[in-house]
Task: structure prediction
Amino acid sequence: MRNMIIASTSTIYGSEYLEYLTPVLSERLKGLGISEVIFIPYARPGGISHDDYSNKAGLAFAKMNITIKGIHTFENPIQAIENAQAIFTGGGNSFQLVKMLHDLELMMPLRRAIYSGVFYLGTSAGSNICGLNIRTTNDMPIVQPKSFKATGAIAYNINAHYQDPIKDDMHMGETREQRIQEFHIYNHLPVVGLREGSYININDTSEILEGPHHARVFKPNQPAIEVAPGFDFAVL
Amino acid sequence: MRNMIIASTSTIYGSEYLEYLTPVLSERLKGLGISEVIFIPYARPGGISHDDYSNKAGLAFAKMNITIKGIHTFENPIQAIENAQAIFTGGGNSFQLVKMLHDLELMMPLRRAIYSGVFYLGTSAGSNICGLNIRTTNDMPIVQPKSFKATGAIAYNINAHYQDPIKDDMHMGETREQRIQEFHIYNHLPVVGLREGSYININDTSEILEGPHHARVFKPNQPAIEVAPGFDFAVL
Result:
């Protein structure tokens, strides 16, 4: 039993924080009778403080009449996860996020909560930790976590903010596709490239692509394929 | 006593592998009487094999009448570094490169060789390992090294393939500058953003920016500054 929304990004171009997700989130949380969400602010985008980040999330959820509580305000964060009605992990730096989750021994409680059916929303770095590890993050490794392992809430890795190659680009750095192909030299896990505005809607065993874009699926030793909204990633 | 060329990239747009560096390299190696370079192919760009990568480097150096020997062909790679006339570490994935260097216990021998004056050429990932750690790499963390620590051949970190923000970009991922600013939330080391075509020419205590571009220098709690070719990074 899982109940999740795994989004490429919190914010699409020209729109407010979480705005594009508000209709689907609002309906989902109302249906589940959820009034409070535990927020995990550890990814700290731009180095924002845990308090400021929780306030930012709080403002977006207030529009849905939902209260946000930052996990950093609990004396016992493991209990906070165990008792949560719902959990939201915001984006930012995946290395810092995973470092904190490992240092505080929260990764396994988070995994258990997700598999027990607690509603989970992830955006960007918060979506990366739904995969088996953060080896397909785009983030800079500004801190060194004990381990790259993540929750394994899904059986593949996410590449958030997936970007197609820029036509006629004169920059010699690798494209996103080349990076994921290099990942497959050393790893056998499928990777889902989620474009900004796409999200995976998980209800128990179905893992459906939603939003306006196709997603790009990478498997080792196979050409990448495009899948349309409505595709069920549970087949991967 | 150090003797190094630390380059943003091996290859500039529209040019062959190492072509833009060949004049300066050729003169430098001739002046030092170097006939053989030990090549470190571990970063494996695109997953290329150690042999194929060494052959590619060999072709570029053959034009300078220099022989390349891949370090992977030595029974004792530590001795290979200790006995090297010169060392070249090619680009690719910084995590895989650093993983191999730590697994094979080559990081400290490499540092000692550099400080003893053995000529060192780094491009891209091979330049990242000249800094104190690889926390400012742009690469995907496709493997997990024991440590992010690097040689510390210079007293700052490199950001290779430095890219300016793309004007009017609708993508919501972080810019390179934002990533380096996040690095400075957790780290105090200066960072040099080296644009493609730029390199640092190190002769003993001078660390001069060369090539056609300015470089961008980042320090914690200070606005980034642009420095022109001829700038000496030793002042950082």
About this structure: Chain A has a mean pLDDT of 96.
